[in-house]
Amino acid sequence: MRDVFTWTSMVFAFVQSGMLDEARRIFDEKTGKRKMTYNVMIAGYVQYKKMDMARELFEAMPCRNVGSWNTMISGYGHNKDIAQGRNEYLGWKLLLVMLRLVTTKKLWTCW
Asked: What is the pTM of this model?
């Protein structure tokens, strides 16, 4: 039986093998994705320096969590693209938004 955990594990396995196209195919086939499934796919794009694809998927997420925000922020940092993140509202602005949401507990409503 394929449930959300099985699908997420398959996406993770393909990401770890460097097979991002196959991971994305599996990701796209699944309906009713959870934040963890999105985060695994986004982290894969970040790991392989595909920040444009990570950002596209991040923006398509229906509800982001702290892990999603952290993955994007650290991705821009690790890929030495802080200026890009700052210019496109990610990076430092993203951190400020995240901190504001956390302190007002709005971010937690996505759980």
From this structure: 0.75
Residue with tokens 């007002």: 104
Three-state SS at 14:
helix
Which pLDDT belongs to residue 91? 55
Distance of CA 85 to the CA centre of its chain: 14
The token pair that represents 103 in the structure block: 């302190």
Q: Distance (Å, rounded) from C-alpha 111 to C-alpha 102?
A: 12
Q: What is the pLDDT of residues 40-49, one digit of tens each?
A: 999 999 999 9
Q: Which residue has the tokens 């990701």?
A: 27
Q: Report CA 15 to chain centroid distance, whole Å.
A: 13
Task: Tell me the residue length of the chain.
Answer: 111
Residue 6: HSE in the Cβ half-sphere, 13 Å Cα cutoff: 6
Going by C-alpha positions, the residue among 94, 54, 52 that lies closest to residue 70 is 94
